[in-house]
């Protein structure tokens, strides 16, 4: 570490992720920028000890050079550096390989099945586009790289980035973190380009996952598919001839951001207003991106079963489900939207009255302060992901429950089950009866038990923060390099 400590300047952290943490809208020659919601953004907002630069795609197609230059300088103020991708690449790389191949596979949903032969062809095209896009990211990182910088690559979009960066300079400190699960090697091995992807990502110095299980799955994939040696600290003997550290770094949130929000007068006002609106009823809450992996239809079916079986609760409970549409260009996501609307319509038709409905479903994102108010008035949070790398919604709910001490129903297939499991009601989200029973149990839970669960979760959420996560990852990344340097000295 000494090398970086001599100068008093903060160490630069280049965070490379598919999307920049802003959404850009063009008004003629100028651009307006807005901070966008999402897991990674929420986590890194809490990190202040590094001088952070973001490198990523701005989420818009900017075909003209004038527009590109204008956006680049607008982004500079936000310490963001854009990667420009043309529409075809975005389609093949982002909608295609990332969201239609890797995302479902990593969440145990298999590979795209429709029209097998042409799918294979397009899978190859999409993989080529994926590499092209990763190459673009590498070029931009290289253009701003300074010695001493630490580079932290994020997620399944950028598995080739460690390889391409090391080709520029083998001494770059490169870490890679996966925000999704890494599946069992039995699932992963189906992927046609399984070996190339593993080899590329193994060029990193440190590879991180949310849970120990994901790390173990990854090491198994490397041993079984590449025939490498898995050790307790990582994977040995990859093409560069050195050890790649593999470890678990469970992400967290910035809990202070939530407690600060809750102490604001306007948020307190909002809480009062919601309490009046929901008076006489217990409030259940779901907050998800509208994504197959979040198990929203399964959650709704469980709630329906609960209402079916518990007549006495029908006018005493309501479910607020906030579902932000994402990836609206991908076919499965459009199908999911109509499926969810259909189920919500049926349940509200069956159990609604002239003045109320059991489900308040919103197809949009809530602003941060309203979201905090909603978390605070909730009695039971319902997280039923079919698979989820971690799931930060469960953490955010806990952070906002200081006075209420509400109950968390949590999918055992979300990474968060390994950290908040002891303070939650764990369910198999595929088992509708199980979830319906958990809802009843949660609504009836005695205060002493609620308090005990809440304290356990609150302790975890306030100590395992986003800041700790990033600090731990980056300092371990620095140490890994030192180790490698020592090895060559020996
Ligand atoms: P996501 O799949 O996006 O993240 P999650 O961890 O729950 O899932 O984070 C979602 C974030 O978006 C939260 O901060 C939440 O508040 C916000 N959000 C979601 N819906 C919203 C809405 N309707 N309105 C406003 N805000 C909303 C991915 C992985 C996760 C992993 C994270 C971080 O899929 O498993 O936990 O990355 O690594």
TrEMBL record:
Keyword rRNA-binding applies: no
Keyword annotations of the record: Glycosyltransferase, Transferase
GO biological process, alphabetically ordered: trehalose biosynthetic process
Tree of life domain: Eukaryota
GO MF annotation: an example: trehalose-phosphatase activity
Keyword Glycosyltransferase: yes
Cellular component annotations (GO), alphabetically ordered: cytosol
Family listed: In the N-terminal section; belongs to the glycosyltransferase 20 family. In the C-terminal section; belongs to the trehalose phosphatase family.
Name this polypeptide is given: alpha,alpha-trehalose-phosphate synthase (UDP-forming)
Organism: Ceratopteris richardii
